[in-house]
Structures are given as structure tokens and as C-alpha cells.
Design a protein that fits this description.
By secondary structure, the chain is of the alpha/beta class. 37% of the residues lie in helices and 23% in strands.
Length: 204
């Protein structure tokens, strides 16, 4: 797992990498939270000029992050129950981590900890991500892919999700994520799909 996070740090620091994408620059006083931060690679690359905040469920990734920087306040926790007071952050971002959570509940929590007018910045999973994975998976992987399909359809149609063996995973559609953001009091939703499935919105 450390190899994965160090590889992600290398990508975050390399603008020439096709996988490279970072959240927007903000003035130094702005408070930033990375949900699903791993070892803090995106925060290290994008916000070296301030103390920032990262949360993840992976204790090993957090331990690695603490060995890489003392400029990030790392916290162990879940997107569905952020351990921060309301109205704390100017920007909350999640780079490919939100698809592994209960998205409607996570968005509700993200909205809660954002200041009014604060920005959420997300990179998400299109259908191509789980489809590529299932092509080389075994029987168990194909069973899990069936769950991902059902969970994704439920989110697309009704903005609801369910877990499978304690895990969440889904791919997202423009319609589904837009409706979920609007239902959780976000406005000015912007969605682009190209090299990345990028979504931004502003907290009302």
C-alpha cells in the first residue's frame, strides 16, 4: 500500500503525468480538507504554503503521510461522519475517494463542514473504471461488479446507496451526481468529463 501512495505522490508532483490533477489554488488563509487523503499526496503537492487537513480510513497511509510532512493534520475517519465542526473549511475535495463511500451521506457531511459559499471539488468514477476491473476479475470480482452496477443504478435514479459486506463502491453519472449535490444544498454545479470526471459546486 505504501508503494501505491508513493506512486500517487509522484503523480501529484508531476504535471506531465496523464493522471495528474490537483484541486484549485486558494489564498493561503483558506482552510482545506482532503477527504480520502491517503498519505496526503494531493495536499503536499497543492498546498505547501499552509497547514491543511486530511482524513482517511487507512491507518497505514496516514502513518506514511505523517512521515512525509508535518504540515498536514491527519485524522482517521470516514467521509460519512466527518469529525469536524460545522462551517470550518473554504474547500473540501475528494480525489477518486467518494465512489467508495455512501455518496449522499458524504455530501451532506461535506456541506456541513464547508463555510457558506465554500467549494467542493471531486473527481469521480465513470462506468469505464469498474468495467475495466471486471474484465480480468475472478468469480468473486464478477459478483462484486454486479453489486457495483446495482448500487450505481440506485444512486443514478434515487440518490440512495447500500453497502455490500461492509463496503461501498459505485460509478457515477452526470445526472446522478448533479441531483445529489442539489439535494444537499449545493449550487453552481459544474461537470466535465475528459481525462478526468471532474465535479465542482458551491455550498449554499
Amino acid at each position: 500500500m505504501n508503494d501505491y501512495n508513493l506512486g500517487e505522490l509522484k503523480i501529484a508532483l508531476d504535471p506531465a503525468s496523464p493522471k495528474h490533477i490537483l484541486p484549485p489554488c486558494l489564498p493561503a488563509p483558506s482552510r482545506v480538507l482532503d477527504v480520502g487523503c491517503g498519505a496526503g499526496q494531493s495536499l503536499i503537492a497543492a498546498y505547501r504554503d499552509r497547514v491543511s487537513f486530511g482524513i482517511d480510513i487507512d491507518l497505514h497511509a496516514l502513518k506514511l503521510g505523517r512521515s512525509l510532512t508535518d504540515r498536514i493534520c491527519f485524522t482517521n475517519g470516514r467521509a460519512e461522519a466527518l469529525p469536524f465542526k460545522s462551517g470550518q473549511f473554504d474547500l473540501v475535495f475528494a480525489r477518486v475517494s467518494l465512489p467508495y463511500t455512501n455518496i449522499p451521506i458524504s455530501l451532506r457531511e461535506i456541506h456541513r463542514v464547508l463555510k457558506e459559499g465554500g467549494i467542493v471539488w471531486l473527481t469521480l468514477h465513470p462506468f469505464a473504471i469498474p468495467w475495466r476491473q471486471v474484465q480480468t476479475s475472478n468469480y468473486r470480482g464478477k459478483v462484486f461488479f454486479t453489486y457495483v452496477m446495482l448500487n450505481s443504478l440506485l444512486f443514478h435514479l434515487f440518490q440512495r446507496q447500500f453497502s455490500f459486506l461492509g463496503r461501498y463502491e459505485s460509478f457515477q453519472t452526470e445526472r446522478g451526481i448533479r441531483r445529489s449535490l442539489e439535494q444537499n444544498a449545493f449550487e453552481d454545479v459544474s461537470i466535465t468529463q475528459g481525462a478526468h470526471f471532474l465535479v465542482t459546486a458551491r455550498a449554499c
